[in-house]
Amino acid sequence: MTAGGKLDTSILDAAGPRRGGALFGLHNQQLSESLAEFRLPAWRIRQLETALYSQRVTTLDSITTWSKDLREQAAAAGFRVGLPEIVETFRSVDGTERYLIACADGQTVETVWMPEGDGAEDDDSAPEPDDGNAPAGRTWTRAAICVSSQIGCAVNCQFCLTAKLGILRNLTTGEIAGQVAAVLNRHQAQPGRDRINLVFMGMGEPFLNYDAFMEAVRLLAGPMGIPESRMTVSTSGILPGILRFADEPVRPHLALSLNAPNDTIREGIMPVTRKWPIADVIEAARKVPLRPHERVTFEYVLLGGINDQPQHADEVIRLVRRANFPAKINLIAWNPGPGVPFAMPDPQSVDAFQQRLRAAGIPAFIRRPRGRDIYAACGQLKKTTIGR
Ligand code: SAH
Ligand code: SF4
Fold it and tell me: Can 157 be counted among the known catalytic residues?
């Protein structure tokens, strides 16, 4: 953008923040290109980066390392921070919070805060003791944030409420990383001091918005200070995405939404299986070079009477053994949603399923549903327009 240039931020923000007025979401190089007209030295750009991603300022005026003049010039040229804002909060009895976060084009996206962790990352590790550094009055010592990657989803899994929306649009890098920034600000959480896990398991299929998603990961793992080892991305099995992911130097842990013991059942509940069958997805996942002690997670949503029987568990055991890479299974009892024609599994079948996997030597964990009462649990996220 030039000093005299016209800037239609609404269009640019929807298309991606590269040439837009929003600075949040741009990496160092892009910041210096966007602000080229001001001929700023590299250290000025670094100050901006720190303000945007480490201090998470919400207005240009709060960039106190910049002179007032510079802040005013940037604002006059149409620049702004452009951090997405929480516009509505729903609080569960279990402490989970679901947010509607407003994007520049008036769309809202959903993000979930799960204090104490949601068990996704931590179910097989001992809880860390509180280091006593958390601000007084806080009720949490660690937390997970569930982040969305798209508004709606095109994958059309039959048991998922998000699928009902269809796909509205991809989120930009700034909107993906911005969800995290907005939630951290709300809770005055500071990565580095606080133990924050990220799960990319909100609305949408991250691997169908691959570039913006991975760019957000790099911002989060870089200047925002959240280690990649504290991030997990879940995919329904988008094979080309998994292959690209395998080559990423910085990447979250991988979770595959298996959800069925064979292709026949999976095709019935996840039509994406017709394109990429289970065996091909597993073959692609094998290409992801695992770090020491790292495992691939298989997520398995238990649907009453459909995939929750002992013979299904036996098939899953064979499938995981054939995969022959370090893996664990997270069992999720299906969370109901209006107009979604499935039944919750009965608690005995959930326990029996887990026991059968464990008896075969496969690490299996039951994920506690979080925030079911406020529609914040897995598969319950569905865009709700502000005020409705
Ligand atoms: N789109 C990605 C990530 C978001 S969904 C994916 O599908 O992997 C995150 C997890 O929630 C997936 O494992 C999905 O299978 C699961 N899920 C979807 N709907 C659900 C529901 N109603 N109850 C329980 N889990 C559900
Ligand atoms: Fe999309 Fe995941 Fe829901 Fe399937 S389960 S429709 S991939 S969000």
Answer: no
